[in-house]
UniProtKB/TrEMBL annotation:
It catalyses: an N-acyl-L-alpha-aminoacyl-tRNA + H2O = an N-acyl-L-amino acid + a tRNA + H(+). This is peptidyl-tRNA hydrolase. It comes from the Bacteria. Residues 1-28 are annotated as: Disordered. Residues 1-10 have a biased composition (Polar residues). Keywords: Hydrolase. Its EC number is 3.1.1.29. GO terms for molecular function: peptidyl-tRNA hydrolase activity.
Length: 255
């Protein structure tokens, strides 16, 4: 793959506990492959902070999943089902200026963070990207945090990044989206409604090195990457630490 068209692609099996789309490995891989496009706005003069972009991408995935167009007989529902039938592959690309404005003309949802803007689109066939998105790229641009992110507020879902892995901003955005989606699948209807009612409040943080082993082995949802870009296959990239899921594991109450 040339650097001109390099994508930050990430995918994991669709294996949420209550997902209606659970399939055996072979069936998933033989199904037509779809991808969820996410485009992050990165203007030269004012790029978003890295953590803000990661959190906005994670919320964008949840906003897409819960949009009425993605459910039941909605206009995006079939594409969403086809996507989750296979692998929940996500591709993050960047845009600015006229490219961003063109992306905004396609059906999708723009989600805003503190400064970040991410537009999420209904899933498309792996080889069937709209031309306005197909020419976009992420390679050559990364994002930084001007200062360390503060501790997450109590009661917030935290998506913990593996401190042992180096990931580009695009890769990390896709991984954070996976983690949010896996957490969503594990929640009850009431827990989902509460999270949605909060505007999908969440934080993305790098786990302390001394806590990663405990987090990744705790029983909380763990994203394991397919290994197509940047990192080794099977690498644990993110742990989804939602208060309701932690309470269920510990026999306590969310806090």
């Amino acid at each position: 793959m040339s650097s001109q068209h390099q994508n930050h692609t990430s995918e994991v099996p669709a294996v949420g506990a209550d997902s209606p789309f659970r399939r055996e490995h072979a069936a998933r891989d033989e199904a037509p492959q779809f991808v969820l496009p996410l485009v992050v706005r990165i203007e030269k003069a004012e790029p978003p902070a890295r953590t803000d972009a990661l959190e906005t991408a994670a919320r964008a995935v949840l906003v897409l999943l819960t949009d009425e167009r993605s459910r039941g007989e909605g206009e995006w529902a079939e594409a969403v089902r086809d996507w989750q039938d296979a692998r929940i592959r996500k591709v993050v690309r960047r845009a600015r200026g006229a490219e961003w404005r063109k992306a905004g003309t396609l059906p999708g949802i723009t989600v805003h963070g503190d400064m970040a803007e991410v537009r999420v689109f209904p899933p498309v066939p792996l080889d069937g990207w709209p031309k306005e998105l197909a020419k976009l790229q992420v390679s050559g641009t990364d994002l930084d945090d001007p200062e360390p992110a503060p501790p997450a507020a109590p009661g917030t879902a935290v998506l913990w990044l593996n401190p042992e892995l180096e990931m580009s901003a695009g890769k990390a955005m896709a991984q954070a989206g996976h983690a949010a989606q896996l957490a969503w699948w594990e929640l009850t209807a009431a827990e989902r409604a509460a999270w949605q009612g909060s505007g999908f409040r969440l934080a993305v943080r790098t786990a302390p090195r001394e806590r990663w082993s405990e987090l990744s082995g705790s029983g909380l949802p763990v994203v394991r990457d397919a290994g197509f870009t940047e990192i080794a296959p099977g690498s644990a990239t993110v742990v989804a630490d939602h208060p309701a899921l932690r309470a269920r594991l510990t026999g306590g109450v969310p806090h």
